[in-house]
Each structure stands twice: as structure tokens, then as C-alpha cells.
Amino acid sequence: MPLSERHKKNRKKNIVVALCLIAFVILIYLGSVVKSGGG
Hints:
Blueprint: H1 3-37
């Protein structure tokens, strides 16, 4: 496998991981807001 191909694949994977982390943080944030809001 060419190095550039592997790098591209890794970058794509990193973007997916970053999106998962962001979604996780948003879920926690929304959960805390709902809790403090009494909803």
C-alpha cells in the first residue's frame, strides 16, 4: 500500500474519531443542560 494512500485512510479515520468525540461531548452537554433545566 502506498504511503499516501495509508495517510489518507488514517486522516479519514481521525476525522471519524473527532466527530465521535464531538458528538459525545454534545450529548454530555445536552444531558447536563436538561438536568439543570429540570426538564
